[in-house]
Write a structure and sequence with these properties.
Radius of gyration: 19 Å
Strand content: 35-45%
Distance between the termini: 53 Å
CATH class: Mainly Beta
Number of strands: 6
Number of helices: 3
CATH superfamily: Nucleic acid-binding proteins
CATH architecture: Beta Barrel
CATH topology: OB fold (Dihydrolipoamide Acetyltransferase, E2P)
Helix content: 25-40%
Structural class: alpha/beta
Shape: elongated
Order of helices and strands: HEHHEEEEE
């Protein structure tokens, strides 16, 4: 009887810890893909669903800078939580970013990454 109660308590505690744990930030996660932004664009067009919520590390050229992010190679929008980083980035600069793929904007034809950092 005591063993059963202890076992149920352990399973309950483990389940609670798993379900309500904080999500892993992209900065702490190992990327599923490391490489050129252009190559990643091709992979996403082949299987978008696979890449959603995956952490990736991409290298490309900054084609545009906005208030909260940058556009890489004209097709990958990277949103930064820390906008102070944007002040150090210049247009046409080649850089590597790490972030979580959150989807594809069909209207703008852009791959969207969030929580981006410069590793």
């Amino acid at each position: 009887m005591v063993v059963g109660v202890v076992l149920i308590t352990m399973v309950g505690y483990s389940t609670y810890g798993y379900l309500f744990s904080a999500p892993t930030k992209p900065a702490d996660a190992n990327p599923e893909f490391m490489g050129q932004a252009q190559e990643f664009s091709y992979l996403v067009t082949d299987d978008l669903a696979f890449w959603v919520n995956k952490v990736v590390e991409l290298t490309g050229e900054v084609s545009e800078i906005t208030d909260d992010g940058i556009l890489i190679n004209g097709t990958i929008y990277c949103q930064f939580d820390d906008q102070t980083i944007l002040k150090t980035i210049t247009k046409n600069q080649r850089l590597t970013i790490k972030g979580k793929m959150v989807g594809f904007d069909e209207l703008l034809m852009e791959i969207k990454l969030s929580q981006c950092i410069i590793p």
